[in-house]
Amino acid sequence: MTKNFDVPKSSPLDIVTATYNALEAGLSEILGDDITRQVHQGLSAGQPVYLAPVVR
């Protein structure tokens, strides 16, 4: 999903490792990198970031 974007990308090995670790731990959700964890945290916050007032 980030093929044409010049941004840091997770290595496939890191994602596979995170996936296996989560599966072994019995988790139903896998958050493979820091950006994904930050987005998840923002969407799960008491005041989700997508509902924050726009600052201009």
Protein traits:
mainly alpha
Strand content: under 5%
Order of helices and strands: HH
Query: Termini distance?
Result: 30 Å
Stretches where pLDDT is under 50 for at least 5 consecutive residues are none
How is the main sheet built? none
Helical residues, percent: 40-55%
Radius of gyration: 15 Å
Helix tally equals 2
What is the SS-derived class? mainly alpha
Q: How much is the average pLDDT?
A: 84
Net shape = flat
Please count the beta strands (DSSP E, at least 2 residues each). 0
Secondary structure blueprint with pairings:
Elements: H1 12-24, H2 34-44
Describe this structure in words.
This protein is mainly alpha-helical and 56 residues long. It is 43% helix and 0% strand. The chain contains two helices and no strands. The protein has helices at 12-24, 34-44.
Summary of the model, kept short:
With 56 residues, the chain is an all-alpha fold.
